[in-house]
Every structure is written in C-alpha cells, then in structure tokens.
Write a structure and sequence with these properties.
Blueprint: E1 18-20, H1 29-44, E2 52-55, H2 57-66, H3 73-88, E3 91-92, E4 98-99, E5 101-107, E6 117-121, H4 128-135, H5 138-155, H6 161-175, H7 185-203, H8 211-225, H9 229-238, E7 246-252, E8 263-270, E9 277-285, H10 289-294, E10 300-301, H11 305-308, H12 310-327, E11 331-338, E12 341-349, H13 354-366, H14 372-377, H15 381-387, E13 391-392, E14 400-403, E15 405-408, E16 411-417, H16 420-428, E17 433-437, H17 445-450, E18 453-456, H18 464-472, E19 475-478, E20 484-486, E21 491-494, E22 498-501, E23 505-509, E24 514-517, E25 522-523, H19 526-531, H20 544-559, E26 563-567, H21 571-579, E27 585-589, H22 599-607, H23 611-635, E28 640-644, H24 657-669, H25 675-687, H26 699-704, H27 708-725, E29 732-737, H28 743-764, E30 771-776, H29 779-783, H30 785-788, E31 794-797, H31 799-807, H32 811-817, H33 819-824, H34 841-855, E32 860-863, H35 871-879, E33 884-887, H36 892-911
Parallel strand pairs: 3-4, 16-17, 17-18, 18-19, 26-27, 26-33, 27-28, 28-29, 29-30, 30-31, 31-32, 32-33
Antiparallel strand pairs: 1-2, 2-7, 5-6, 5-7, 8-9, 8-11, 9-10, 11-12, 13-25, 14-24, 15-19, 16-23, 20-21, 21-22, 23-24
Cofactor: Mg(2+)
Binding site for Mg(2+): 777, 801
Domain PEP-utilising enzyme C-terminal: 547-899
C-alpha cells in the first residue's frame, strides 16, 4: 500500500534555494521569477550581464508561511556571495575596494514598480571613501551613498519617502539648481548626513553600517513587499495568483552615474504603443536605473544614444536583435553604460498596447518567427475589446493645451484630479476622472485603476505611469513638460496662462499625446467599422491595425470549434449581431416584446376574470408577437434562433406598487377613483412576492396561466411558416422553456407546444422542424440533467441565474453592497457574475453537460448568460464541450477570438 503522509508533518524543504546566473534559464520562471530566469538566459547567451545569483520563490514561500527564512538559506547565500566576490575581486563593503550589489525583486509575472528594489548595498561610512578612490570620483561615491540611504530608508525601514525628497529639494534650492546632477560632492556629503539623521529620528536606530546586515534586511524587505497593499491590488487587477511569491536577485552593481560617459536606459525592440519596428526607448546620462522608470528626470530618446556613445549604441542594437529573435517577441530591456561599457540588467517580453499586440503578432508571422497559431495566442479578447472603444473625432472643434508622449492609446475624458485618493472617491460617486500627476509611483495604483486616463508632466514611454497603464489598457499621456502640475494647489497651468483647476473637464488622446481642455466628442473605432462591414480589410488604404485584426480573426474562425451566437431581441440587434459574425441567436428574450404600448394588453391578460377575457387578451397579443418573430427570422435567415418563452414575474409588467397606491389614494380622496386602477392595485397586491426571482416566473407561468405559452409557440410557428412559405426563407427556430427544475414541468409544456406546432404545420402545409429545449439555470436542473434530457432537444445554460442560485446571491443587490469588500479581501479574484466560478457553477455545468449527453448523445449544448462573452469563461465552455456561446452583439468578436484561442491552445496541448 502507498504510504500516507502525516498531516502534522511539514513537507520537506527544497534542497536548493539559491542559483547562480550561470545555472538557470528562461524556462525556470516559476522558481527564479521572470527577472532571474531571464538574467540567466542572457548569461547563457553570452551577453554582458553583471555576475550575480537568485534566491528562489520557494525561499519566499517558506518565509511568508512561517515568518522566517529557510534554515539553509543564510549558508547558501554566503556560499554564492563568496563566489561572487572571488569573480569580482572585491568583498562586499570592504573599506578600500568595496563590492556593491543590488537587491531586486522578480516575480514570475511582471509587476512593474509594485515590489521593492534597493541599489548600492554595501556602502557605509567606512567604504564610501574607498568607492570614491576606486572610481576616481568623489561626487559619484557620495551620490551612490545618499541613494542607498534614501532607498533603504523608505523600502526596508519604512521611512516616509517624502522626507528624503523634501531634503533633496531643499538642497537643490539652496544651491540654486533644478536637477540633482548639479549638486557637487560636498552637497551630497551634507545630504547623506541629513538622510542619516532622518533615519535615526524616524526609526530610533542608526542606518546599518554592516554590509551583510544591509543585504539580509533588503532581501527580507523584498519578500515582505509581495504582500503590500499595492502588490495585492495589482495582482487582483491583473489576475495574478497570490501564492507564487517573488524571487530575489542579488547582482553586482554597475554604475550609470559615473559621469557623462555613463548612463542608464530602457529599450524596446519595437514600439510598445504602436508595434512599429524602429529604435524605441529612453536614455538618461549620469543616472541610475530607478531614475528612468520613476520618471523624475525627463530622458532623451534612445536614438540620441547613437550620437552620445556610438559603440555602446551599436552593441545595444545588436543585442536587441539577438533577444527579439531568441524570444520571438517584443522585448523590454534595461541596460546601464558604465564609462563606455554596456551591461544588460534585465529583459522580459514587453507589455504592449492592444493595437501593438495585434500588429506585432502578424509582423512576427511575416518574419517567420512564429506561426498563425502562436500569433493567435499572443493576443486576447480584452485587447480586442479595447480596440473597439471609440476615438476622438478629428473634425471636432477642440482647444488643445498641450502635447506629450503617447504612452498608451485611447480617448479618455474626465474631471481633472491631482491625487489618487480623490480619483477613487470621485470615481465611486460616478464621476469620470483623469488622474494628473508630475509622475506616478506605485502608491498611485488605486487612482490609476479608478481613472479613465493618466496624464503626467514627467517621464516617458518607460516610466511607471506608461508601463502600468499599458498593462491595464488604460489611456496615458506622459512627459507633458509644457504643462506645470501643482499638486498642492491642485491645478495645472498650460502655455498662455490657461489654468485647469481640479474638477475641470479635460480630454487626453493616448494615440497622439494631445491634451485638450473640455470634452472632445468621440467617433466609432475603425475596428468596429470593420466588423460592421463599413471598412474592407483588403483595401489598399485600410488601416494597418484593421488588417492585423482581420488576419487573426480569420484564423480564429478557421480553427474554433465553439460557435458564437448573439443575445438579441429584435431585428435591429439581430442584423448588427450578424454583421459582427454571429452564427445565430442564442437568446431572444420575449419579455422585451411585451413592453411599451403592449403593456396595456399584458395588464388585460393579468386582470382577466374569465377564460374569454384571457383568450381575447392573448388573441390580441398573438399577431404582434408573430410580427416580431417574422422580422427576427428574416434578419437571421438560415441561422438558428433560440426563443425563450416568457420568463420574468408578471408584476414587472404592472405599475409600481407605491406609485399606484398613491394614485389610488389621491383619487379616492377626491371621490373619483378609477375602476381600472383599483383592479390593478388588487392585482399588484395579489402578485406581490417577497422574492419574485424565485417565485411565479418562467415555466411556472406557463403552467399557471392557461394559453400563455401556447400563444407564444403559435406566434413562433406561424412566423416560421410565413417566412418559409411566402418568402422562401429558411427559418430555424428553437423554442426554449425557462426555469425548469424537473422533467415533469418540461414534459407538460412540450406536449402542449407540440400540439400547437402540429396544428400550424397542418394548416400551413409546411414541415417546420422546430426544436424544443430548456434553460439549465437552477441547481436541481443541473443535478437532474440526465432526466431532463429525455424531453429536451437542447440545453442552454443560463449562467446568470445559475450563479445566483448556486451562490445564494441576488445580483441586483450584492454587487453594490458587499462585492467590493469581497474583492478587496481576496475572497473573489473576480466577480462570479463576470467570470464563471469553475469550482461551483462550472462543476454543475460540466456534470449537467455530461449527464445530458449520456442520455441523448446528440443533445445540443450552449450558454446564454453574460459569461458567454467573457474571455476566460469561453475557454472553460470550450473545455467542457459546449457547442456554442451566446452574448451581446458587441461582445461577439471577443467571443469568436477567444473560441479560436481556446481551440488553438487545445491543439497545442495535444501536440505536446
């Protein structure tokens, strides 16, 4: 017998917690994190990477679980540190020839700016002079020391970072300079003293002088940063699992702040905003890496490096080509030049805008680097949805107040706010806002999520604001130097003395970088025009993006197994859905046909006292229902149309009980009460239910109100007969009975429906081939699906109601009351009404599908809840073997794309 593990025994720890850069590779992201795995890969490729080692995510998990580092970790780190010291010919923090290292986070998935980094570990009062002598530059040494204290104090010791920033600003003002590079060695030495005093005052301890203590505390701080509020928020936003942990990379320092022949930069192998090939990135002379991504100093374009340091530029271009060919994708690269020597500090597959994702995918196919199946996996439905958002009308009258770097595309309009707290507060009140900052930092994440768009006066395409905004698909304009942002006075001043106060409306164009005062009108995106047939993707002048979308969509349609239908209740929506690629209607809600002028007829039906009155009311509704279906079958000729019989409670068709009660009371006080109002009020009271969504609705209406479902079935059958006979069309109606909980309900309704259909076929002399099925939207229906399938030609999973009944949630109430708290506490990663709950609701869908097909192998299976257009849910429905998904017309392209991606992913898995 196999041994069983004692649940009280802790599983053994891994035997190895530290890997040298020479030991790993890019496929070890789970263990080494993205940064560590890619540093190892570049080392293996022979690229100039500073020596170093990586502490694994497994060590982080042990620490987070127990509150202590693994017992073996210290010795392993010491062993690798000694090897690093031997390689570099220096010892960590020694007085005369100090080795300095960086301590950087690196999770499996990129989380830009969310976790902690500390540079220049190893500097102290004893070694700063040695570093100055080693570099031949006293200013550089004191600049590096003040940076260490500032980063260490904020990141490791928890000191308010503004205290350091204020001291730095005061030093620059006292010197009469605007940027820190203009401070000399004496200024920086004095600043170091001030920074140390801040640390002592704020923490009650002196800045640590022992280099190994600095490193160990920094490692622990990186581990801790995995669970900071901002990191948790980012993971929820990006749906990154919370149990992965982060690796820690300890790398020998190379210095970009050694003078004008040194510098640091970020480069992209293609433009992450547009996807165009070329030289894209930012460079900053005499700076360390954090200066670029923080956006605190405005950079120069990467192309300018050619004139500053051509040998380094040429080497960088060659390395970029090597990396893109090796990774077969857009690469995001961090580098430092130390006195003319180029060093690679990081590479990763770069975040990109939605438009760039589609363009780059097709470009790489044309270059022979990837095939169409891989191109399909490089894009997703969320990106396609972004491309369908409107854009600003170029012909509109506008007042442009500035132009900056187009960092992340889109057309965003909102009220100006100047801090994240206000952005969140106003957004929760229903206001649309634009977050305006000098530069953003990780603490601004809440506000960035809440805002329609982000505008900064500093930074470039590689700044924190730009990188995070692109990852979220949020409109962003960066580096608007001509706009003066005053966060204390809460205003922005534009050229010409134009002042934008908090609350004033501004518009930002993330595609052009333009900033406008006031609201700019929007027009449909070219991608929507393409889907609606108003733009031909094959035309010579067609938008390059449209061509890329067309190519990828064509491949997705070729490989997908899931068909995509629309939720549509009228001919106009049906026609639009068909233009968007719908292969039928998966849900036509007939209750929407009972509103407007027809409400009075429904009232007559509800108030009917006799069979004759009821039949008369149904008789008046019949031709109107029939006319609706004739139009629908014409719009969807040749494609299936699933018509759901009346589903909601009858009280929804009657006046509001409070308004009606007041009206009757006022009339009675005037002694001119309306008889019809009195009868309506009696009916409203009679039909009132404490929980109407679980009351008299769906199939129960058809069983309690004689003739109601028969009238609807007759209208469907007669409309189909008319379409088939008179118009020689091909109507393919499917009749769906809602809210069935037991097969007996379905049997009774089916028997009545078949009699009506047979009568119409006989009178009209036509074979309609109508099918009858049901919605699976109650747990009991899912659990008895095998029985229900005996009387059903098809199942359509109503995942909205199924989610409500499985969870015991009232969707209309809970999303506004406590879902926000559930999301913040991590109980939900995402709302179960947005993405299907695979473990609960999903397991019922899976088991019902299996049981239904066990009874009836040819049973058609679909889904018509909102999950039918959700990307992640579509993959689940493909996996469990449904035949189609149905969603709102504008989500059809997204569902088509994701159905193709699901199929391509399955094919890839099978081939592996």
């Amino acid at each position: 017998m196999p041994e069983t593990q004692d649940p009280h025994v802790t599983p053994s720890e891994p035997s190895k917690f530290v890997y040298d850069f020479t030991e790993g590779n890019k496929d070890l992201k789970d263990l080494l994190g993205g940064k560590g795995a890619n540093l190892a890969e570049m080392t293996n490729l022979g690229l100039p990477v500073p020596p170093g080692f990586t502490i694994t995510t497994e060590a982080c998990k042990v620490y987070l679980d127990s509150g202590q580092e693994p017992a073996a970790l210290r010795a392993e780190v010491s062993e690798h540190l000694e090897a690093l010291e031997a390689t570099m010919g220096k010892k960590l923090g020694q007085a005369d020839n100090p080795l300095l290292v960086s301590v950087r986070s690196g999770a499996k998935f990129s989380m830009p700016g969310m976790m902690d980094t500390v540079l220049n570990i190893g500097l102290s009062d004893a070694s700063v002079s040695g570093l100055a002598q080693q570099a031949g530059d006293e200013r550089f040494a004191w600049d590096s020391y003040r940076r260490l204290i500032q980063m260490f104090g904020k990141t490791v010791l928890g000191v308010d970072g503004d205290l350091f920033e204020e001291a730095l600003e005061e030093a620059k003002q006292a010197k009469g300079v605007r940027v820190d590079v203009d401070l000399d060695a004496a200024d920086l030495k004095n600043l170091v003293g001030q920074f140390k005093d801040i640390v002592s005052k704020e923490t009650g301890r002196d800045f640590p002088q022992e280099p190994r203590e600095q490193m160990d505390l920094a490692v622990r701080a990186v581990f801790d940063s995995w669970n900071t509020d901002r990191a948790k928020l980012y993971r929820r936003q990006e749906r990154i699992p919370g149990d992965l942990g982060t690796a820690v990379n300890i790398c020998s320092m190379v210095f970009g702040n050694l003078g004008p022949d040194s510098g640091t930069g970020v480069a992209f192998t293609r433009d992450p905003a547009s996807g165009q090939q070329g030289v894209y990135g930012d460079y900053l002379q005499n700076a360390q890496g954090e200066d670029v991504v923080a956006g605190i100093r405005n950079t120069v374009p990467l192309a300018d490096l050619e004139g500053i340091d051509k040998p380094s530029y040429d080497e960088l271009m060659q390395i970029m080509e090597t990396l893109e060919t090796h990774y077969k994708d857009l690469c995001d690269i961090e580098f430092t030049i130390e006195r003319g020597k180029l060093w690679m500090l990081q590479t990763r597959v770069g975040k990109r805008t939605a438009g760039a994702a589609f363009r780059i995918a097709t470009q790489l196919v044309d270059q022979g680097l990837i095939d169409e199946a891989e191109a399909l996996q490089r894009v997703n439905g969320a990106q396609l949805a972004q491309l369908m958002f409107p854009r600003f009308d170029e012909n509109a009258k506008t007042q442009q107040i500035g132009r900056a770097i187009a960092a992340s595309p889109g057309a965003a309009v909102g009220k100006a706010v100047f801090d994240s707290y206000t952005a969140v507060k106003w957004s929760r009140s229903g206001e649309k806002v634009i977050l305006i900052r000098r530069e953003t930092n990780p603490d601004d994440l809440n506000g960035m999520i809440a805002a329609e768009g982000i505008l900064t006066s500093r930074g470039g395409k590689t700044s924190h604001a730009a990188v995070v905004a692109r990852g979220m698909g949020k409109t962003c304009v960066c580096g608007a130097e001509e706009l003066e942002v005053d966060t204390k006075r809460r205003c922005l001043t534009a050229p010409g003395g134009i002042v934008v106060e908090e609350g004033d409306v501004v518009s930002i164009d993330g595609s052009s970088g333009k900033v406008y005062l006031g609201e700019v009108p929007v027009v449909p995106s070219p991608v929507v025009e393409y889907f609606e047939g108003r733009m031909h993707a094959g035309a010579d002048d067609a938008d390059e993006l449209v061509k890329a979308v067309h190519r990828i969509m064509a491949y997705a349609d070729r490989v997908r197994r899931l068909r995509v239908r629309a939720n549509a209740d009228n001919a106009e929506d049906a026609a639009r859905a068909r233009r968007f690629g719908a292969q039928g209607i998966g849900l036509c809600r007939t209750e929407h046909m009972f509103l407007g002028e027809r409400r009075e007829m429904v009232e007559r039906l509800i108030l009917a006292d006799t069979d004759a009155d009821r039949e008369a009311a149904l008789g008046d509704l019949l031709p109107l229902q029939k006319a609706d279906f004739v139009e629908l079958f014409e719009a969807m000729d040749g494609l299936p149309v699933t018509v759901r019989l009346l589903d909601p409670p009858l009280h929804e068709f009657l006046p509001d009980i409070t308004e009606l009660s007041v009206r009757v009371a006022l009339a009675e006080s005037r002694k001119d009460a309306n008889e019809n109002d009195l009868r309506l009020l009696q009916a409203v009271h009679k039909l009132h239910e404490q929980n109407p969504m679980l009351g008299l609705r769906g199939v129960r209406l058809g069983l309690v109100i004689p003739g109601l479902f028969a009238m609807q079935v007759r209208a469907i059958a007669e409309a189909a007969a008319e379409r088939k006979n008179a118009a020689k069309g091909d109507p393919r109606a499917e009749i769906m009975i809602p809210l069935v909980g037991t097969v007996q309900e379905l049997e009774i309704v089916r028997e009545e429906a078949e009699q009506v259909i047979a009568e119409v076929e006989q009178v009209r002399g036509v074979d309609l081939k109508l099918t009858l099925g049901t919605m699976i939207e109650l747990p009991r229906a899912a659990l008895t699906a095998g029985q229900i399938a005996e009387s059903a030609d098809f199942f359509s999973f109503g995942t909205n109601d199924l989610t409500q009944t499985v969870w015991g949630f009232s969707r209309d109430d809970v999303e506004a009351s406590f879902f926000t708290a559930y999301l913040e506490k991590g109980i939900f990663g995402v709302s179960p009404f947005e993405t299907i709950d695979k473990d609960g609701v999903g397991s019922l869908v899976r088991s019902a599908a299996e049981a239904g097909r066990a009874t009836r192998p040819d049973l058609k299976l679909g889904v018509c809840g909102e999950h039918g257009g959700d990307p992640e849910s579509v993959h689940f429905f493909h996996e469990v073997g449904l035949d189609y998904v149905s969603c709102s017309p504008f989500r059809i392209p997204v569902a088509r794309l994701e159905a193709g991606r699901a199929a391509a992913e399955s094919l890839g898995s099978d081939s592996r």
